[in-house]
Amino acid sequence: MSKLQLSIYQFVLKEKGKSEGSEYPKLGDFYRENFIREEDKLSDVTREKVYHNFIEDFIDLFNDEFQLNKNETKGIGLDYIRPYPSSYIIDGILKGGPTGIEQEIFDKEDMETPEGVLAEDKLTTLPYYFKLWSPYDNQSGILMIQSYTDYGVNTLILSHIKEVFRKYNTSFITERFIPKILKEEYINDSQVYKIAFLKNSLPREARERFNPVFTDYEGLKVKIEITGFNDDPENFLNNLFKPEHKIGANLSDLGIGNEEEYETVVYYKDEFGHRTHAKAEKQIEIRPTIYLSDSLKMEDKDFADYEKVRAHTDGILETIKVEIGYKPIDNG
User: How far apart are CA 55 and CA 125, in angstroms?
Assistant: First the structure.
């Protein structure tokens, strides 16, 4: 049975050709520049009207057909969209999946007798929920994309949304975002089970000392893993950073001695076996996968129930607004 997952991205918009740090101060600046139509009466142009024009453009880009990746191995199409202009939200269901290769269809209890064939020009789909919050009165917005443990079209969805903005010479710049409360929940429910020390480059003499066969390999990397333990994350990191708990073994031949010479990575897993890892720091900065409860699925199906996921992600969005310090502005 596949589990529902959720990826969250924070994004900003930047006009192409402009330097880093020159993003639109407010997303509304982008809307005003590009989504006031010639036929619009300026006296009637409200924020909601401008945002509605943006929504129309977003929908039109799908052009009632599947959009394929460059290799034509996956595609996505629009099932339906629900706009909420007063909240600056677009959400809905996209359908997508693999294509471009002929596949035989079998009953999983009978591998001898094919029941049919999917031709290479056919596309199999699963439904994927998405939510785009792009507030008129803030510099950044939030994109959420639902996927499954073994299936996803996140890259294709991100690429297609970027096309909406690329039409207007604007870059859609994203960064993964995990709400603080979800990080804390994961840390509280997890254990450290592995630690690794990474050295991403070795000088020639170190490579030769280690083994002459590696002398000429300039890109040689070393990774030392330690497993066989489980510990509370806070307790483990507190102990790890004590001065008397530095690496005592002589690893200087591998360039692993002083802290600045190597990277330390800590691996975590929770009670459900969900795993993640992050650089070892006193302030834990992890990005665990977000899993959604099975209660958000449609009855008797493994698909997300639109209304349930919409309500759940609305709650997550409200938490994010508080975390990023979003305060609505009446006029702007």
Answer: 24
Cβ 153 vs Cβ 97: under 8 Å? yes
The DSSP secondary-structure symbol of 6 reads: E
Do 216 and 312 fall into the same domain? no
CA-CA-CA-CA dihedral for 68, 73, 78, 79, to nearest 10: 160
- Running DSSP on this structure, what letter comes out for residue 289? P
Distance set, CA 327 to CA 138, 303, 318, 321 (Å): 8, 34, 11, 8
The answer to whether residues 300 and 232 belong to one domain is no
pLDDT at 332 (0 to 100): 45
* Rounded-to-integer distance, Cα 94 and Cα 77, Å: 6
Dihedral (Cα; 274, 277, 280, 281), 10-degree rounding: -70
Whether residues 138 and 203 share a domain: the answer is: no
In angstroms, the first-to-last Cα distance of the chain is: 47
Judged against a pLDDT cut of 60, whether residue 280 lies above it is answered with: yes
> How confident is the model at residue 237, as a pLDDT?
86
Judge contact between 75 and 124, C-beta under 8 A. no
Q: Estimate to the nearest angstrom the gap between the alpha carbon of 47 and the chain centroid.
A: 29
Q: What percent of the chain has pLDDT over 90?
A: 50
218 and 81 inside one domain: no
Q: Is residue 37 part of a domain?
A: yes
285 inside domain: no
Amino acid residing at 33: E
Cα 312 to Cα 51: distance, rounded to the nearest angstrom: 24
Q: Is residue 21 part of a domain?
A: yes
The pTM is what? 0.84
Q: Whole domain around residue 249: which residue ranges? A: 183-279
- Which residues, 6+ apart, have CB-to-CB distance to 183 below 8 Å? 284, 286, 287, 288
Of residues 289, 180, 182, 284, the one with CA closest to residue 234:
284
305 and 168: one domain?
Answer: yes
- 274 with 294, same domain: the answer is no
Same domain, 138 and 232: no
Q: Is residue 332 part of a domain?
A: no
Q: Which among 3, 8, 4, 1 has a CA at the least distance from the CA of 315?
A: 8
| Count of beta carbons in the 10 Å neighbourhood of residue 110 | 9
